[in-house]
Each structure stands twice: as C-alpha cells, then as structure tokens.
Amino acid sequence: MSDIPNTLEGQIRWLADELAEVKRRARNRKRTGTVAEVDHAKGLARARFSDQGGKPFLGPWMPWGEIASGGIRSHISPTVGEQVTVMSETGDLADGEISLSVPSTANPRPHDGPEPVLTYGNTRLQINRDEFVLTGNVRIKGSLITEGDAEVNGGVHFKGPFVRHNAKNIGDDHAHTGVQPGGGNSSVPV
After folding, report:
1. Domain presence at residue 127
2. Model-level pTM?
3. CA–CA distance, 51 with 68 (Å, rounded to integer)
C-alpha cells in the first residue's frame, strides 16, 4: 500500500487504483480455468484463464490439491484441457491452488448414477455397495490371496515354476504314483 497523496485529485486517483486492486483480488479468490501445462515431477500445473474482457492469459505455476496426503496418500494429477477451480485466499494467483476439477463438455462426468466411478483411459473402476467392478487389465505386483471362491470366465495361463493344489504340485513337472503302461488311469499327483 503506497502513501496517500496530499491533493484531492491524487487521493481520488489513489482510491480508484486501490479499489481496482481490491476488485482484481476478489475476482481471483476463486477462478475457473483450463489446465494448460503440467509438471508431474514438481506437482505443479498452470491454468489458462480469461480476464474481464475475455482475453485469455496463462496463470502461474501452482500446486494442485489431493484427496489425501497423510497416512493415506493419493496422486491424481490434472490433465491438459481439464477444467479446474483455482482458489487463492489472498486473491493473488501466485498464491493459488488448483482445488477441484469441474466436469465440462470436453470432459464430462464418467457416470450418471450415485456409485463412485474412476476412469483413466480405457480402465474403469466402479464401486458398488457389494463389489468393485473393474473394466480393463489388472496387473498385481505381489501376492494375491483370496478368502472366497474364484470364478474365471475365460482362459487361464500360468507362467512360473509350479502350480499347487492342496499343497501338491499339479504343474507341468508334477509326478503321479500308480502309473501303469497302456490306457489305464494313474493315481493322484505326488
């Protein structure tokens, strides 16, 4: 804040400038823009906005908010072209944060029901009351333990040193007892 001028004309000009700055900051406390650039490594993005006259301008680099960043953490970065809401307590976009994504014609909501849905490319996760419905391929880097039945509607391909059933090897190198030459049946796997 600069010193107040001594003349009435100077004071009016000063007040007009101060009022314009207050209005500018008030407009910038909450803005809707479109993501123009993303720096994934730094966790920063830039959004394109329109000024009062409709002229587009590129905002500064700013962080985006996450769903969680404590014991549970998320990383869902915005994408170029995504419509977002930017919040700035001070009204200065340099202090802003991309807080929410806003569905648009270019990026509509992925679902019109009450169930939570997450999509990325051709992968879709829908959370229903009693099940997760995942559309797309699944890669698990670790062990998989299921405490219920498993049903597979399609082929099963195994790659690995063994396949076990009730602690017995039933893989491609398993052996049987009671093998008889000819067309007889063997006993259970060893």
Report:
1. yes
2. 0.70
3. 32
Rounded CA-CA distance 169/102 in Å is: 54
The whole-angstrom separation of Cα 7 and Cα 153 is 85
CATH no. for residue 40?
2.40.50.230
Query: In this structure, is residue 156 part of a structural domain?
Result: no
Q: Which residue has the tokens 């009016």?
A: 12
Q: Which two tokens stand for residue 54?
A: 């409709």
Joined together, the tokens standing for residue 182 give: 């000819």
- Is residue 58 assigned to a domain? yes
For residue 78, being part of any structural domain is answered with yes
Q: Tell me the pLDDT of the chain (190 aa) as tens digits.
A: 568 889 999 999 999 999 999 998 898 899 999 999 999 999 999 999 988 788 999 999 999 999 888 898 888 999 999 999 999 999 999 999 999 888 899 889 999 989 999 999 899 999 999 999 999 999 999 999 999 999 999 999 888 888 888 888 888 788 777 777 777 777 777 6
For residue 64, the 8-state DSSP code is: B
Supply the Cα-derived Rg of the chain in whole angstroms: 30
The phi and psi torsions of 83 (rounded to 5 degrees) equal -85, 130
Split into its structural domains, the chain has a count of: 1
